[in-house]
């Protein structure tokens, strides 16, 4: 009994060091880190055996009872994979708060020739990762938002990729200059999706108002793929003493397309506001064409035909 007591008493300082380290690392630490603060292999194994510590990934532990969080799992994965590894792809998008990207498992970029394997982690290997692609979220090594967008671009449908790009540019998460520079540097690798991302970035339409939803992105692509004249995006109109921003507009014809998704309706107050908006626009000579996701998905041709008819009638 005294031996066990002495074991903990003699290692009180290393245990405090581990507790502080775990606090800074979202509750986890590596076996190597435990040895570095002064614990022996025997003492490390004993803490695991009696349940004082719990295994998260091979050679990565947390103090028993510490809550598991997405950031904890991400940090544990980088400790497991070793120096130079970063959270990447979908998992990096989640850490940065980038919406519209899924990540069932933690994903890591790991420098070759290292090739760690565990069914709970998806490993992407590479010969090098430029300093410009390395970032950090709350102490977790992670690919930058710009690199993350490039990495996930091959997984997204065109309208989803356009929506994500527009959102990141609108919120300043990345910039056209940063994205263009990284795409130029990485294009030689034949990265999936990079070509489409380059095309979207180079398109003249990105110089106008940013799209704000996937429905807007879908509708925009439908318009661009048709023979319709290109409308103004996020166009401001003064009507009834109020300023309204509409999704797409042909100002000379006074025709407006509004993307009417369910998320735009939020109770009676919003309903009344929408009705006031439509009344003001109509009373000042604007023809408003609502477009829904179902209509875009069912028949892009019908959407184009409705807009074309409206433009002909007011010509």
Task: Characterize the structure shown.
The N and C termini lie far apart (95 Å). α6 (89-96) crosses α7 (145-152), α8 crosses α10 (194-202) and α8 packs across α11 (214-224). The protein is an alpha+beta fold and 315 residues long. It is elongated and about 85 Å long. Helix content is 46%, strand content 19%. The strands form four sheets. Strands 9-10-11-12 form a four-stranded mixed sheet.
Largest sheet: 4 strands, mixed
Give Rg in angstroms.
Answer: 27 Å
* Total of DSSP H or I helical runs spanning 4+ residues: 14
Strand content: 15-25%
Question: What is the average per-residue confidence, as pLDDT, rounded to a whole number?
Answer: 86
Portion of residues within helices: 40-55%
The number of E-state strands comes to: 12
Oligomer: single chain
Shape: elongated
Termini separation comes to: 95 Å
Which class best fits the helix and strand makeup?
Answer: alpha+beta
What strand line-up does the widest sheet have?
A: 9-10-11-12
* Uncertain parts: 1-9
The SSE string, one letter per element, is HHEHHEEHEHEEEEHHHHHEEEHEHH
For this entry, give a set of tags:
315 residues, alpha+beta, four-stranded mixed sheet, three-stranded antiparallel sheet, 14 helices, 12 strands, elongated, disordered N terminus
């Amino acid at each position: 009994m005294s031996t066990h007591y002495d074991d903990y008493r003699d290692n009180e300082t290393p245990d405090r060091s581990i507790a502080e380290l775990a606090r800074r690392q979202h509750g986890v630490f590596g076996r190597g880190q435990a040895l570095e603060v002064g614990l022996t292999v025997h003492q490390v194994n004993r803490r695991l055996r009696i349940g004082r510590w719990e295994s998260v990934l091979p050679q990565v532990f947390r103090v028993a009872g510490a809550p598991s969080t997405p950031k904890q799992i991400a940090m544990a994965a980088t400790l497991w994979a070793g120096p130079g590894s970063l959270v990447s792809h979908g998992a990096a998008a989640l850490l940065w708060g980038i919406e519209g990207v899924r990540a069932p498992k933690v994903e890591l970029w790991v420098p070759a020739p290292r090739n760690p394997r565990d069914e709970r982690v998806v490993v992407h290997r590479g010969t090098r990762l430029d300093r410009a692609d390395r970032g950090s979220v709350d102490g977790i090594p992670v690919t930058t938002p710009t690199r993350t967008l490039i990495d996930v671009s091959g997984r997204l449908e065109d309208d989803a990729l356009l929506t994500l790009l527009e959102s990141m540019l609108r919120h300043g998460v990345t910039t056209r200059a940063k994205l263009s520079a990284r795409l130029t540097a990485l294009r030689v690798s034949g990265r999936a999706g990079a070509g489409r991302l380059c095309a979207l970035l180079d398109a003249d339409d990105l110089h106008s108002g940013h799209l704000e939803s996937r429905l807007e992105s879908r509708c925009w692509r439908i318009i661009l793929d048709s023979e319709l004249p290109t409308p103004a995006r996020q166009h401001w109109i003064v009507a009834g003493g109020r300023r309204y921003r509409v999704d797409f507009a042909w100002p000379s014809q006074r025709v407006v397309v509004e993307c009417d998704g369910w998320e735009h309706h939020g109770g009676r107050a919003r309903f009344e506001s929408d009705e006031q908006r439509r009344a003001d626009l109509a009373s000042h000579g604007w023809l408003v064409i609502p477009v829904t996701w179902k209509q875009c998905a069912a028949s892009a041709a019908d959407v184009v035909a409705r807009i074309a008819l409206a433009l002909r009638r007011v010509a």
